[in-house]
What we know:
Blueprint: H1 2-13, H2 15-36, H3 39-67, H4 73-91, H5 95-117, H6 120-129, E1 135-140, E2 143-148, E3 157-160, E4 170-174, E5 177-180, H7 182-185, E6 191-193, E7 198-199, E8 204-205, E9 210-214, H8 222-235, H9 239-264, H10 266-269, H11 274-288, H12 291-295, H13 298-310, E10 313-315, H14 318-324, E11 329-333, H15 334-338, E12 339-350, H16 356-367, H17 373-382, E13 386-390, E14 398-402, E15 417-422, E16 426-431, E17 434-439, H18 441-445, H19 453-464, E18 468-475, E19 489-500, H20 504-513, E20 518-522, H21 527-537, E21 541-543, H22 548-562, E22 565-569, H23 575-580, E23 583-587, H24 593-598, E24 601-603, H25 610-645, H26 650-668
Parallel strand pairs: 11-20, 11-22, 20-21, 22-23, 23-24
Antiparallel strand pairs: 1-2, 3-9, 4-7, 4-9, 5-6, 5-8, 10-24, 12-19, 13-14, 15-16, 16-17, 17-18, 18-19
Helix pairs in contact: 2-3, 2-5, 3-4, 3-5, 4-5, 4-11, 6-8, 9-11, 11-25, 11-26, 13-14, 13-25, 13-26, 14-25, 16-17, 25-26
Amino acid sequence: MLYPQRLGQFTREHADTVAALLCGLLLFLGWFALHLGALGLAFLLLPAAYVIGGYESAREGLTTLFKEKELDVDLLMIVAAIGAASLGLWRREYHLIIDGAILILIFAISGALEGYAMARTERSIRSLMSLTPDTARVLLQGKEEEIPISQLKLGDEIVVKPGELIPTDGIILSGYSTLNQAAITGESLPVEKTVGAEVFAGTLNGYGALQIKVHKPAQSSLIQRVIRLVEQAQTEAPPSQEFTLRFEKGYAKVIVVAGILLATLPPFLWGWDWETTIYRALTFLVVASPCALMAAIMPTLLSGIANGARQGILFKNGAQLEKIGKVRAIAFDKTGTLTTGQVQVFQVISVGEYTQQDVLKAAASVESYSEHPIGKAIVQAAGETVRVFSARRSAKAVPVESKLLNPKGDLDLVGAIQVQAIPGQGIVGIAQEQQVIVGNAIFVQQYVTNLPEELRKMAQSLEQEGKTVVWVAKNPTPNPSPQAKRGADVMGAIAIADEVRSQAAATITQLKKLGIEQIVMLTGDNEETAHSVAKAVGIDRVYAQLLPEDKLDVIRRLQQEYQTVAMVGDGINDAPALAQASVGIAMGVSGSDVALETADIVLMADKLEKIAVAMHLGRRSQSIVKQNIVVALGFIMLLLVGNFLGNINLPIGVIGHEGSTVLVTLSGLRLLK
């Protein structure tokens, strides 16, 4: 029973493809029956091929005709195919029935391909919906009770435990934790939140339990707004699509009107007999059918898609391959796109007699007990080859490549005891009978007499560049009395930053050489960090501290100025902008599921330099499409003139029609190279 169910599901999901395959099979069997002289069998098989392959086109064409009072190419193709079949029966030239069936088969295949290109909107919305939990843990009369998100009311108090997703936007009533909200706001570092701070649905809670008050309806949460923005942006038809539809309708009208005139006027104007007139009119409908015109585009775009796939560029549909060749402006998200999205030690500074290794070793000894992302970055740096900086009290940093002191290439960490983390400030512990203090400047100042002025200035400079600075101090007295508490010495400081991708600057340079008129950066991070990264990669225009709807507004403004705009991103917060952009490009490795579903192009290996490759493919596809259109229209014009002058018959017209289709198809396959 399971097999028929799966077969039925496959048939429903791929109805257009199944129809095209059946049409092709019946067409082949009908042709074979005609070849064997089995007319009765052929007249059973070929009408079935017409019905199965042409049903959807006939339905759409008639719907457009009766509801919108418009003619389209679907109806034109059906009329031409039926006309060829009718003429074949009338003149007993049964090969004309085959010709009509071939026309229908070509359109059935085209319809199946278009169906696959239109299926991503629903998947995108489903992916967004899965980002928030279905239920929330609500406090009712002092007891926890799980209820559906839709039943939450203003003023409800909910509990979120460590490692859980925040179910809805709210205000923290009690508790302290770090929240990973990079996917919502684009901030590269987890954000510390405590009483009075706002939290967003879909963000990931860190190590602390939180009690949150619902201050807005669940449907008004930030993540729900993202969902609505994606829906709205994806339902707006791009200008190129509207132009194609208008051209199709106009072309069909011209051909139908011309066919009617050709079927009625020649007997009165030139004295043709009615049999010749009808024959020429049907030949006209066949040779004027836009199969070659349609084949001028799709094979080219599909070849470009296959070429891109071999290079790690996934185009979700052919239209986006064409569009990316027209891009005039491009916007980049920062976190996870221009940067790796992973917090790392950027710089180690030591003062006095202490070395960089001393600073890193002391900090890592206590941070190894911490779950904070900054602590993990420090411990990770202690186990790898890192770029350290030599700095004396003059605070002039000189970069040096060095292995840390252990022969294995890492620091020989000493286990700390009595480790105590102070949320939002720092961490203290005892290592080698000395107290080690690691934290921000205010926290460390509680333990030291003063902070070295040169180091303070360097720290301020680093913070202005968007780095997070962690101070490291050491107190020779393990358990100082309150009177001796400020006797610690400052060892140095460690700067933490999100690393810029190695190929980011080269990519921006390539894009400028390709003639991209405007390159901007969009981020939810602060101004200092944003401008620091932008300067490093060569971007001049920066928009910082943006929420998802702000990014969407920037994309819309860019589209008003530059028309075709690309957006490159990786997070949930980028989804509306990716959907609104003419071309949305997502990072395949670091990208969220929503970004991958919403985007039109995915860089499978997160290689930014592939954006330039994709643009080159797009521009080359445009060139080949234009060449193919000229060839297709040229063939149509030659066949029309030949038909009018009486120099071709219907079989020759079909050969010319199909030959031009094959020619432009082969031309499109050049993009496979």
